[in-house]
Amino acid sequence: MSYLLSFLAFVIALAGVKGGTWDPKAVGVRKINFIGWVVIVSSLAVLVFSLMQEYRKNLLDEQVMRYPYKRFMDALEVSLGPFNVVYSEAGGVLAYHENPFAILDRKDAAGVISKFDFERTQEGANIWSSDFSGNYASYTCQELSDAVDLMESTLVSNLAVLDREVVVLVQEFKQSGYVREFLINKCDYYVGVRRDGNMVRVYPPKLTEDKVKVTFDSIISIRRHLMRVLGGSA
After folding, report:
1. pLDDT for the residue 80
2. What is the rounded CA–CA span in Å between residue 212 and residue 83?
3. Is 124's pLDDT higher than 50?
């Protein structure tokens, strides 16, 4: 499109050199001669194409600005995935097809999740493997770790375009309730860990209702901010 604009600008300049765009002897629009119409049409074309080019540029800039916020939203969905599973396994009512964020609206969510016994549900799983294999603790931790990694990589690569509030909210999420508790052992739950020559189990953290609520509040705060930024496309 830039080549077309350059060509039209050349046509207008050439017509200007030629001159004679106006016939004073004619009446009405007939006063505009052929050269005049060329200038008018070319000028209008330049205006239209310039506006289109500016619109596309602004649209692209907006998409670039919104992209990292959408990645943060994706990370929040990842972080809630295992707790949707835990909540359902512990007796909470959550339809399979529901939005991952629906759990945040369940008033009983924190209480139900806090009663989930990660150690009991581990029975029968392979304690010498880091694979999920029924190990809810390792699965939960890995999903939280993936969510944090996605947030951190988004922060690093988009820091220049992000607002300060979302940066602070993400840092708070990393240190909130069960996120920090789960990640402290680098997801080595029920996995063989050599300490002083012995193989031992690393047990998952005990989730209290307060810790679950603190983390959910952090997720809600980030999501609310993201929705303000993203608007209807959230």
Report:
1. 93
2. 10
3. no
Which residue pairs, CB below 8 angstroms and at least 24 apart, start in 100-105? Answer: 101/76, 101/77, 101/223, 104/80, 104/216, 104/219, 104/220, 104/223
Enclosing H/E stretch for 113: helix 109-114
Task: Quote the radius of gyration of the chain (alpha carbons, Å).
Answer: 30
Helix, strand or coil for residue 8? Answer: helix
Residue 105 burial (10 A CB sphere; 0-12, 13-18, 19+): exposed
- Decide: 18 and 33 in contact? Cβ < 8 Å: no
Angle at 142 between CA 141 and CA 148, to 5 degrees: 90
Question: ∠ CA(60), CA(61), CA(65), 5° rounding?
Answer: 115
pTM score of the predicted model: 0.67
